[in-house]
Amino acid sequence: MVCSTSTNENEKEEECVDFKGNPADMSNTGGWVAAGLILGTELSERICVIGISMNLVTYLHGSLHLSSSKSANIVSNFMGTLNLLALFGGFIADAKIGRFLAILIFSFICALGMVLLTLATTIQRLKPPSCETSGGWKCIEATGSQLAMLYIALYTVALGGGGIKSNVSGFGSDQFDKSTPEDEKKMVYFFNRFYFCISVGSLFAVTVMVYLQDKKGWGVGYGVSAGTMGIAVFLLLCGTRFYRYKKPKGSPLSVIWRVVFLAMKNRRLPYPNHPSLLNGYDSSKVQHTEKLRCLDKAAIMATNEANEDLWIVSSVTEVEEVKMVINLIPIWSTGILFWTIYSQMNTFTVEQANIMNRKHGRFNIPPGSFSFFLFISILLFTSLNERLIVPFAKRITNYPKGLTSLQRIGIGLVFSVAGMVAAAICEIRRKSDMKNGVKTNAFWLVPQFFLVGAGEAFAYVGQLEFFITEAPEKMKSMSTGLFQTTLAMGFFVSSLLVSLTNMATHERWLKNNLDQGELNNFYWMLAILGVFNFFGFLILASRHQYKSQHYENEIETRRIDDI
C-alpha cells in the first residue's frame, strides 16, 4: 500500500517508507500513536516559546530596566524572527533532509537556546544593578554587552522553534493515508486536535512556567523548559521505527525561481494555440489552469524538439505548482494584521497587568499568567469547534468539515477586532480608576484575552489548513513555513507600528509609564485597521478558487473540448 498525499486523483500517490527506507508497512506505522509522539515535540516547543514570550517583557522591563516600548519591540522581534525562520526550516526539510531529521536537529538547537537563556538570566554580571531608591527612583538600563548573551539565546531558540514549527504539522499529517476512508476521516480532525494539543502546552507555560519564573527565579523557569525539550527529543527518537517517512523532493524555492525566470525570459514568445502544446502537458501531475497565464510561457519550447534541460524549459506541473503558491499570497497578506493584534497579548497587555490589582485572596497572580485566559479560550473554542460548531455548520453548508478554511479565518479576524475594542475600553476604565485613586482589578483584562484567543482558535487552524491543503504536495513543509511568515510579519508590523506611533505622537500614546500615556488610542487604531483588513479579506476570499475547484473546472473544460 502507498501513502497518498494528494487531493487530486490525477496526481500520483507518493510512497511512504519506514526508517530503513523500505516501503512502509501501513498496519504497523503511522496513525494517532505516531502523530502523538510527533506532536509532543511541538507541545514542548510551545512550552519553551510561550514561556518566554508571555513573560519576557516583565524580565526586560523589571530586571533589565528597559523602556516599555523597547521591551515590547524585543519580544515582537523575537517572535517575528522565530516565525520567519520557519520558512527556512521548511525549505531545508523539503529540499535536503526530510521532515523527521529537520525536527530532530531543530529540537536540539531549541534545547541549546534554552540552556543559554537559563545562563543569561542567572549570571549576575549580565544584569544591571538594582534600582536605587535614595534621592528618588533611579534605574540603570542594561548595556549592550549585558544584552548580547540574551540576544544570542533568544535567537538560537528562534532558529530551533521555527524549524520545529514548519515541519511538525506536515510530518504529523504524513502519518495518515488519505487514500483510505478511515484515515481521511481522521484527517478532518487532525488540525483541530493538533492545535488543541499545542494549546495545552501553551496553557502549561503561562501557569507553571510563568509561576516558576516569577517565584523561583528566571533561571529555574527556563531551566525546566530546557529539560522539557530534552524529554521531547528523547520521545521523538523512541518513535523512529513507527513513523511513515517521505523522501525530500528537492528545493521548492529553486523550482519557483526557475519558473519565474523562464517566464520572464520567454515573455516575448507567442502563446501556443492550445495548452496541450506546452511542455509536459499530457504527463502533468497537476491539471493546467488559465489563471496567471503569463507563467505558462515558462513551459513554451522555443523549438519543436524536446529538451530536458530544466533551465531551458519548465513543465506544466512545475508552472501549476508555482501558480498554487502565488495564489496563496493575497490571503497570506490579510493574516498579518491578525497577528499584529495578537502580539499585544504578549507585550502591552502584560504591562497593563503588571500595574493593575492582581491579588486574588492572598495570592498575587504573576502578570504573564493572565495569558491563561487566552489559552483557555483557545481550548474552549477548539473543543466547541469539533463537537458543536462543525456538526452544526455541516447541516447548513453540507460541507464535510462544516466550515471552509477561509470561513474560519474570517471569523478569527472578527474576533480579533472585538478583542481590540475590549482592550481599549479596559484601558479607559483603568485610567479612570487611576484618577480616582483606585487600582483596577486585572481581571478586566479577561475579555480581550478571551476574544483574541477565540479568534486564534479559528484563524490559526484556518490558516494552517489553508496553506497546507492549497499548496503543492511536495511543498508542504515550505507552505507551513509560508504560513508562519504571516505570524512573523504580524510581530514585525507590531514593532513598526509602535515605532511609528511613537514618532507621530512624540511618545505621547506609548510612554514608559503607561499611567501617563494613551494606550487606549493605540488599541482603537488597531481595531480600525482590523475592520479595513476584514473587508479586504472578504473581497480576496470571494475571488479565491480552491485547488479542488480548479481541478473540477478544468476537467469540465476538457470534457467539453473533447465533445
TrEMBL record:
It is found in: Membrane. The keyword Transmembrane applies. It is a multi-pass membrane protein. This is Uncharacterized protein. Gene3D superfamilies: MFS general substrate transporter like domains (1.20.1250.20). InterPro entries: MFS_trans_sf, POT_fam. GO terms for molecular function: nitrate transmembrane transporter activity. Its main location: membrane. Belongs to the major facilitator superfamily. Proton-dependent oligopeptide transporter (POT/PTR) (TC 2.A.17) family. Belongs to the major facilitator superfamily. Phosphate:H(+) symporter (TC 2.A.1.9) family. The keyword Transmembrane helix applies. One of its GO terms (biological process) is transmembrane transport. The chain crosses the membrane at residues 74-93, 99-120, 194-212, 218-239, 365-384, 405-425, 445-468, 480-502, 522-541. Keywords: Membrane, Transmembrane, Transmembrane helix. GO terms for cellular component: membrane.
